[in-house]
Each structure stands twice: as structure tokens, then as C-alpha cells.
Amino acid sequence: MQFQRGNKIEVFQKSGDEAWEPYMDDFIGLHGYVTDPDTNINDPEALIEVSLEGKGTHRLPQDCLKLVE
Description:
Blueprint: E1 8-11, E2 31-36, E3 48-52, E4 56-60, E5 65-67
Antiparallel strand pairs: 1-2, 1-5, 2-3, 3-4
């Protein structure tokens, strides 16, 4: 899945990526939007920057995110 800047997302599951930290468990179920998809890298394994409602901006693995309408 390719994320683009401005996409609305949900953190819907815990990531299997080694970059996932225990404090990120609190992000599951939160919504936000993509602020930096790293389209220059275009790597599905790369972390992308998202802004989460009430939690600020974070770099998260892509396997924990899904697009929402």
C-alpha cells in the first residue's frame, strides 16, 4: 500500500517491525493523517511520519496503519 501526504489513517494493529516501541501500543485505534510518506524512498518497509489526534507527530511502521475514508 502506498501512503500519500494528507491520507487519513488509523493505527489498527501492533506492528511486527523492530521499530515498534511498547508506548506505541497506546496509539492503536487512533486516527490521524500522513504528514511525510517518504515517497522519495518509496520503500514499504520505511517508517512514515503521521500526525495522530491528541498524540502529536510520530514515525510509525506502515504495517500498523490503514487508510480510512
